[in-house]
């Protein structure tokens, strides 16, 4: 396996940039990229500041340096943990070789697709699955749940180093490598199927508290004597469709989001209203 | 204990600040409701409550992500406030009664923080024009202030001055309200599941959803067992489909 530092030498020889400058740029990017995130140009200032160790070395002339700084102050936004490290790595390589003019198109070309890939991996595939396990453990009173979430955060952070060097070594070639990636779609499909089955199990598990206390009294004649029998609705339901209420409520929420296109806040408020109404009439 | 000292409020305010700023930088996920809930629980002396509030909020957030810089409910701040107030005696119900509205209201401050930070990039433009690297550096590093303070200040004030009064109000609330909150707590994970399912190809792969449900609800398999079957099921499905595609070509 090649070490992350492979390829550093050739790049470093062509300019005054040392591996130390590259590392410094990488750490600035990892630790502070979004500290100055704003609606106007989003991650632009963080990107430029992270690039400064390289820019200072490559452009000793002040006017050229200012020009390079301005170039990086344009709008930039992508997934910060999976998307941005390889893009930043590639542009660090380009800037180091005084090929700064190619940087703009690389950034603009990659930030969209990488935002999509990164947000999908983090927000749809990995985080919800880990979160649902972690929450289930936490509800059972285990500290392993929050520990899992924290470790996941550490893993994303640690991954930013190899991702940065991946971009750094590939440079412009990164674009071709990302396009036509068959592996990603396979992993996505695998994770989707896994996720569907796990969610199917988690709905009745996590929402198991949603049961009805309703009871029916029925007078029946047993051997000529009238006796009152109590039937708990939940017991009957459990024999036919266990966890009927969790499934119904999830179905309702899904319908509101998927078909009615309501925003999460409205679905949340509707669910709160539903909880109060069903609680008041004694269903729950 | 009827309220908190200014020190606890300060520590929780700093926790909220660190959570959001770390999230902007290396990630580390201190801002996850589950993580921050437990830490708050440790600080106020009720870890179990922190776990419960954190877990409930995390379940609500399952399908949520700040896509392209979008704002989502601030479950971090909600978890801190909910755990702090609940630990005064009201427990989970009181905690959720505070955590959920707080998470939603905080979205306004998130927007404010993201907007105010614009000031720094305009200043950075001016410093860049002059080639003033120190000025640029300062503007970038100060950019975290609006982000951190929009969380830290509400947490500090609410815990220091608000926790006691909020607790009094909650104690005075009628039974139907507290019962409603209780039902809300059990019902709200549905939102997270629904958001998650909305991003998944439910129409194409609904069968797997049913299998998972049956494994748990009817066959009473522990959830780790369900996960293992899911692991095997996904592998098997892709393998079978792969050989099908080869047979056709």
From TrEMBL, chain A:
<protein>
    <submittedName>
        <fullName>PTS system mannose/fructose/sorbose family transporter subunit IID</fullName>
    </submittedName>
</protein>
<dbReference type="GO" id="GO:0009401">
    <property type="term" value="P:phosphoenolpyruvate-dependent sugar phosphotransferase system"/>
</dbReference>
<dbReference type="Pfam" id="PF03613">
    <property type="entry name" value="EIID-AGA"/>
</dbReference>
<dbReference type="InterPro" id="IPR050303">
    <property type="entry name" value="GatZ_KbaZ_carbometab"/>
</dbReference>
<dbReference type="GO" id="GO:0005886">
    <property type="term" value="C:plasma membrane"/>
</dbReference>
<dbReference type="InterPro" id="IPR004704">
    <property type="entry name" value="PTS_IID_man"/>
</dbReference>
Automatic annotation (TrEMBL), chain B:
<feature type="transmembrane region" description="Helical">
    <location>
        <begin position="6"/>
        <end position="26"/>
    </location>
</feature>
<protein>
    <submittedName>
        <fullName>PTS sugar transporter subunit IIC</fullName>
    </submittedName>
</protein>
<dbReference type="GO" id="GO:0005886">
    <property type="term" value="C:plasma membrane"/>
</dbReference>
<dbReference type="InterPro" id="IPR004700">
    <property type="entry name" value="PTS_IIC_man"/>
</dbReference>
<feature type="transmembrane region" description="Helical">
    <location>
        <begin position="75"/>
        <end position="100"/>
    </location>
</feature>
<keyword id="KW-0472">Membrane</keyword>
<feature type="transmembrane region" description="Helical">
    <location>
        <begin position="149"/>
        <end position="170"/>
    </location>
</feature>
<dbReference type="Pfam" id="PF03609">
    <property type="entry name" value="EII-Sor"/>
</dbReference>
<keyword id="KW-0762">Sugar transport</keyword>
<feature type="transmembrane region" description="Helical">
    <location>
        <begin position="33"/>
        <end position="55"/>
    </location>
</feature>
<dbReference type="InterPro" id="IPR050303">
    <property type="entry name" value="GatZ_KbaZ_carbometab"/>
</dbReference>
<feature type="transmembrane region" description="Helical">
    <location>
        <begin position="176"/>
        <end position="197"/>
    </location>
</feature>
<dbReference type="GO" id="GO:0009401">
    <property type="term" value="P:phosphoenolpyruvate-dependent sugar phosphotransferase system"/>
</dbReference>
<keyword id="KW-1133">Transmembrane helix</keyword>
<keyword id="KW-1003">Cell membrane</keyword>
<feature type="transmembrane region" description="Helical">
    <location>
        <begin position="209"/>
        <end position="238"/>
    </location>
</feature>
<keyword id="KW-0812">Transmembrane</keyword>
<keyword id="KW-0813">Transport</keyword>
<keyword id="KW-0598">Phosphotransferase system</keyword>
